[in-house]
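Module 6 notes. Inverse folding takes a fixed backbone as the condition and produces residue identities as the prediction. Think of it as a translation problem where the source language is geometry and the target language is the twenty amino acids. Below is one complete input and output pair. Work through it position by position during the lab.
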């Protein structure tokens, strides 16, 4: 096992808690604009989130809740959904432009630490690439987009999370192996994808919709990365003993801790 070379971040739920007040709102705006009476409540959206990918999520909604829906103007349903999703992306990007979706606690601190230490940064996400750029451009850190050497996003792979494809692509683009990297995720689908790509050093930061999900295979589970003066909490993980931390201990997930975690996982201690 070599040294830690790169951190691979998920986006939605991990860099920022974007789903309830970002994506959901944008989906509803696109539905209203198209003259549809579809309205995704917070609870319904939580259920639909089990399907990764916005277009796939709309398709699932149609199947389950509006099975008799016929797309207007003789359009194929798939094409109608694609157009609807483009409108959703437009609404989402506009919403992020208002600057109301901040990075989560500890994210910017950890990104800075990694950069300073020469640890490379990458993204592996299901979300549409424009959404990633808009988020990174509107969180108040000029040039943040360019801190990421690789951004693997959206439809560039045949299968979305929980399939490993997007992580495998990120590794290929980095020119690294799974053992060189640590992943930070927030969802069961994301965690399954990372593990299926062999990325065993998996840190989960729970987000609004993922608090009840099963992360028993993650190396470390926390409620947030946290700051030194506003730490997060350890919730579990296979490497907790090796790190000599306990559940409910306060924690600031910094680069030093991540290096120890990486070491513990690949030396078989976790
Ligand atoms: C989360 C997703 C995405 C977003 C919506 O991605 O599953 O589908 O909810 O974005 P991740 P799109 O956690 O992997 O960042 O509508 O662009 O798909
Ligand atoms: Mg996520």
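Target side of the pair, the amino acids:
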């Amino acid at each position: 096992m070599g040294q830690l070379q790169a951190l691979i971040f998920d986006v939605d739920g991990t860099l920022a808690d974007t789903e309830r007040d970002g994506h959901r709102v944008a989906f509803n705006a696109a539905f209203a604009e198209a003259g549809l009476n579809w309205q995704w409540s917070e609870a319904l959206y939580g259920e639909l989130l089990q399907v990764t990918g916005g277009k796939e999520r709309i398709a699932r909604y149609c199947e389950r809740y509006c099975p008799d829906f016929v797309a207007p103007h003789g359009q194929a349903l798939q094409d109608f959904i694609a157009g609807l999703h483009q409108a959703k992306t437009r609404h989402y990007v506009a919403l992020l432009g208002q600057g109301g979706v901040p990075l989560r606690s500890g994210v910017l601190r950890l990104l800075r630490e990694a950069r300073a230490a020469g640890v490379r940064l990458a993204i592996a996400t299901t979300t549409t690439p424009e959404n990633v750029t808009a988020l990174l451009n509107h969180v108040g850190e000029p040039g943040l987009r360019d801190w990421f050497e690789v951004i693997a996003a959206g439809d560039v792979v045949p299968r979305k999370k929980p399939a490993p494809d997007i992580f495998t692509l990120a590794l290929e683009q980095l020119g690294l192996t799974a053992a060189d990297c640590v992943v930070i995720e927030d969802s069961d689908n994301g965690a399954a994808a990372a593990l299926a790509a062999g990325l065993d050093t998996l840190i989960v930061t729970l987000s609004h919709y993922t608090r009840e999900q099963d992360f028993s295979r993650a190396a470390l589970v926390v409620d947030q990365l946290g700051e030194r003066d506003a730490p997060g909490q350890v919730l579990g993980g296979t490497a907790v003993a090796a790190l000599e931390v306990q559940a409910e201990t306060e924690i600031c997930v910094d680069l030093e801790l991540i290096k120890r975690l990486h070491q513990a996982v690949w030396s078989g201690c976790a």
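Reference fact for the lab report: The chain has two domains: 6-17+102-266, 19-97.
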